């Protein structure tokens, strides 16, 4: 963002102090101006389909950022069963835990791929040894309680890879914990940069829209006598739609 005022200026109520790159002369700018050509291009732009110049993808005029939020809660069911976060996960490779910190939570700024662990979550259940004679014998011999450990870690699903921009931890007191049912909540924000691709929809200023059916380089597109190459090739049948 850029400032619209300077130091020492007297400001008034309702005055705009800053503006982003989408605001020009106090007006919001939606989209970019492209050079459009009407014509049939080997049937690829039939009806509302459009052909796009690849330089638009390289210039990142329509590059967008998509955010996805993951929330993980840790329950404390009773004194025999509770959930914790730890990096010592059973039967997990070092590669899947490479971006975790000491507490088993993903680090900010890490790039996560498919099946990478965001938050390690382990359910520990203390077995009541008074009900099982075999466990009671092990407790007498070794002096240790038998615990059942179950891995319930949260991993990245397919197609949602990106970069971790922020992690948040929320802890609750005993009174709020009894109302919510959990004592700790972890929230992870993942950002993914997405370029234009086949299947995306573009819309004009007056509502005429089209689906990108083919992306070609500038060398394969038609040009005028002066060497002007269009950015978009659309069919005249797509104007009413």
Provide an overview of this structure.
By secondary structure, the protein is mainly beta. It folds into two domains: 16-63 and 195-234, Dna-directed Rna Polymerase Ii 140kd Polypeptide, Chain: B, Domain 6 (Beta Barrel); 65-194, RNA polymerase II, Rpb2 subunit, wall domain (OB fold (Dihydrolipoamide Acetyltransferase, E2P), Beta Barrel), CATH 2.40.50.150. The chain has three helices and 18 strands. It has helices at 54-59, 133-142, 174-180, and strands at residues 2-3, 18-19, 23-24, 27-28, 36-38, 49-53, 64-74, 81-84, 111-112, 117-119, 122-126, 147-151, 154-155, 162-171, 184-194, 201-203, 209-216, 232-234. A five-stranded mixed β-sheet has the order 5-18-6-17-16. Strand 16 and strand 17 form a beta hairpin. The chain is elongated, with a radius of gyration of 28 Å. The protein starts with a strand and ends in a 7-residue tail after the last strand. The relative contact order is 0.24. The mean pLDDT is 80. This is DNA-directed RNA polymerase. One of its GO terms (cellular component) is DNA-directed RNA polymerase complex. It is an enzyme of class 2 (transferase).
